[in-house]
């Protein structure tokens, strides 16, 4: 095992060869040294690269970096300059390569005066992940335009500690497969709707009603109903999200988001002509003739359409404020998180760092109104940018890379939580504040991000920090790669979770919590890990999902109890208890 190798030896080894890249790879990922074109191949999977980064920070970072020579050489670009087979053979037998007279090995030894024995016990899988990370980082250095110094590979060195809490899970149901090959399902959201009913959906088009905690029936199939519906390209395209009007039992209205091919119809929010469009994102309103029916029958209309630069980071959470009552201004207003569409690193950062563009924002609209440009929805008069010249009145807040989930604390504080998936360094939980700028692409977490520098790095904040709003909880990529929000627990069956905001990591399946009372604007609340058990035994979601990417989602039921969903295999687990161990 790699962890059995003395850190100094591994550090010297990698030090002599240089290199950085990956994090967790999957069994389907190519690990041969050469591709068909004869070029070296390195792991690119997000989990392989993350794992490689974790190993690098643990064993190599004390001797190596990617900006300058230290105890060992600068590793930037080593995977592009040196043949991979040479790198692997050197790690396997450094003295032998040096004694053979190899020019590079001899030159490195003469410069650094470090000599080590071979380490054949280093597992190939771990080494592949390390090189994958080095390679990815080197690619980032190559695309850098300004060679900015001072980058941080590991912005939060301290590891998140496990709490004394263990969530007890019980499998409740398995959603039917929507494809023959993996991922068999793409389940994404589960929550109760007005009328005390419980719904769940699959990105490939089906909206299900869950009955008696264990059976499913199809309420609506967008793929069959909408002729231009598409769930390609990307992991997030398809039937993205949904929200039922708070007065659904009377007016029969609900809303969905989905994708359609480029050019299907003119976009209400189009990119400039010089920018390539990969897919369109659409918000629809549905009006059922019978709100009590188990299947949809009625009409639908389009509210708005947006061009997206890529199939990633598109429309995310669609929701109503559950705390709003008919006598408040927020009642019946629809919130929608919109990602940057990968525009920031696709050469178009101006599209997602301004209140003049819709990308990288949370919008707030009135589906019953008509004062929008297209006349199909309304712009609330109290939206923060309504009276700002040249700004979009729809925008409620800006500065998001990928605002994945939105929820509210139902237990008195009324806090609004917006989780934002970061680039390569930080994952965020933010408090929702009207008019706030959360920083992307100039900030990632509580750090500076530079689109013209290596995108695998962040930097310390400058003294003239600007008027940005920072997350109230965050973690870096030693802990995970993509945050999954998240609910302030509001049920009654697990009292140990009261006062806690529960969230997780999509890829790794790690579960976290922060105390709601400690999540205060301008501060970062401590984050704690939660253990998980089933049938009285501790379990790892990565193992029970039989894949390194867990694809974790969280949901709630009609009683506000908490559920864990694994997107790719369709498993739905209920949190039925919480064991507290007194430390």
Structure description:
By secondary structure, this protein is an alpha+beta fold. Among the domains are: 2-143, Orthogonal Bundle (Cytochrome Bc1 Complex, Chain D, domain 2); 185-401, TolB, C-terminal domain (Neuraminidase), CATH 2.120.10. Helices cover 15% and strands 28% of the residues. The chain contains 10 helices and 28 strands. Strand 4 (197-202) and strand 5 (206-211) form a beta hairpin. The longest helix is centred in the N-terminal third of the chain and has 20 residues, at 124-143. The two termini are 31 Å apart.
Quick recap of the structure?
15% of the residues lie in helices and 28% in strands. It is an alpha+beta fold.
**Which CATH class of the domain at 185-401 is shown?**
Mainly Beta
User: How much helical structure, as a percent, in the residues?
Assistant: 10-25%
Distance between the termini: 31 Å
Mean pLDDT across the residues is 89
Radius of gyration: 25 Å
Helix/sheet category: alpha+beta
Number of strands: 28
As a percent range, the share of strand residues is 25-35%
**Number of continuous helical runs:** 10
Low-confidence regions? 1-31
Describe the secondary-structure layout:
Elements: H1 7-17, E1 23-24, H2 46-59, H3 78-81, H4 84-92, H5 94-99, H6 103-112, H7 124-143, E2 162-174, E3 187-193, E4 197-202, E5 206-211, E6 215-221, H8 222-225, E7 241-244, H9 248-251, E8 253-261, E9 279-288, E10 298-308, E11 315-320, E12 334-338, E13 361-365, E14 395-398, E15 403-408, E16 416-420, E17 426-431, E18 443-444, E19 447-448, E20 473-476, E21 483-488, E22 500-505, E23 511-515, E24 528-534, E25 537-538, H10 541-544, E26 552-556, E27 562-566, E28 571-580
Parallel strand pairs: 2-24
Antiparallel strand pairs: 2-28, 3-4, 4-5, 5-6, 7-8, 8-9, 9-10, 11-12, 12-13, 13-14, 15-16, 16-17, 17-20, 18-19, 21-22, 22-23, 23-24, 24-25, 26-27, 27-28
Helix pairs in contact: 2-7
């Amino acid at each position: 095992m790699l962890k059995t190798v003395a850190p100094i030896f591994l550090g010297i080894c990698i030090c002599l060869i240089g290199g950085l890249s990956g994090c967790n790879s999957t069994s389907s990922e190519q690990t041969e040294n050469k591709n068909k074109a004869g070029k070296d191949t390195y792991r690119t999977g997000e989990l392989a690269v993350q794992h490689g980064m974790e190993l690098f920070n643990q064993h190599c970072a004390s001797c190596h970096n990617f900006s300058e020579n230290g105890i060992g050489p600068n590793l930037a670009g080593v995977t592009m300059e040196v043949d991979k087979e040479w790198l692997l053979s050197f790690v396997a037998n450094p003295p032998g390569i040096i004694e053979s007279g190899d020019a590079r090995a001899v030159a490195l030894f003469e410069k650094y005066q470090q000599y080590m024995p071979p380490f054949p016990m280093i597992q190939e899988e771990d080494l592949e992940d390390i090189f994958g990370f080095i390679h990815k980082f080197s690619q980032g250095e190559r695309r850098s335009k300004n060679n900015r110094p001072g980058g941080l590979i590991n912005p939060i060195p301290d590891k998140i500690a496990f709490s004394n809490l263990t969530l007890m899970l019980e499998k409740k149901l398995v959603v039917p497969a929507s494809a023959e090959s993996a991922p068999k399902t793409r389940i994404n959201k589960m929550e109760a709707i007005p009328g005390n009913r419980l719904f769940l959906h699959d990105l490939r088009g089906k909206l299900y009603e869950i009955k008696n905690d264990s059976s499913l029936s199809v309420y609506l199939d967008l793929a069959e109903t909408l002729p231009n519906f598409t769930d390609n390209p990307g992991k997030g395209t398809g039937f993205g999200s949904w929200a039922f009007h708070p007065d659904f039992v009377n007016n029969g209205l609900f809303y969905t988001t989905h994708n359609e091919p480029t050019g299907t119809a003119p976009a209400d929010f189009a990119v400039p002509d010089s920018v390539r469009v990969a897919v369109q994102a659409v918000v629809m309103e549905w009006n059922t003739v019978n709100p009590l029916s188990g299947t949809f029958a009625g009409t639908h209309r389009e509210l708005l359409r947006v061009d997206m630069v890529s199939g990633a980071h598109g429309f995310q959470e669609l929701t109503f404020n559950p705390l709003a009552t008919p006598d408040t201004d927020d009642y019946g207003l629809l919130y929608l998180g919109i990602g940057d569409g990968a525009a920031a690193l696709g050469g178009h950062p101006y599209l997602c760092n301004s209140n003049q563009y819709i990308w990288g924002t949370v919008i707030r609209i009135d589906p019953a109104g008509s004062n929008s440009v297209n006349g199909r929805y309304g712009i609330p008069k109290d939206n923060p940018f309504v009276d700002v010249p040249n700004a979009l009145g729809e925008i409620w807040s800006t500065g998001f890379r990928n605002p994945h989930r939105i929820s509210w604390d139902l237990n008195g504080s009324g806090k609004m939580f917006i989780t934002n998936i970061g680039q390569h360094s930080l994952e965020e939980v933010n408090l929702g504040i009207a008019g706030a700028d959360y920083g992307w692409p100039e900030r990632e977490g509580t750090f500076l991000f530079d689109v013209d520098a290596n995108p695998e790095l962040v930097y310390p904040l400058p003294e003239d920090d600007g008027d940005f709003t920072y997350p109230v909880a965050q973690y870096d990529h030693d802990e995970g790669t993509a945050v999954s929000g998240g609910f302030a627990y509001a049920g009654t069956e697990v009292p140990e979770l009261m006062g806690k905001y529960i969230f997780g990591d999509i890829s790794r399946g790690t579960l976290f919590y922060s105390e709601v009372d400690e999540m205060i604007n301008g501060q970062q609340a401590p984050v704690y890990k939660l253990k998980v058990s089933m049938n009285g035994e501790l379990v790892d979601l990565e193992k029970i999902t039989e894949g390194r990417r867990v694809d974790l989602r969280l949901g709630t039921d009609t009683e506000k109890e908490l559920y864990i969903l694994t997107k790719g295999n369709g498993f739905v687990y209920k949190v039925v208890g919480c064991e507290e161990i007194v430390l």
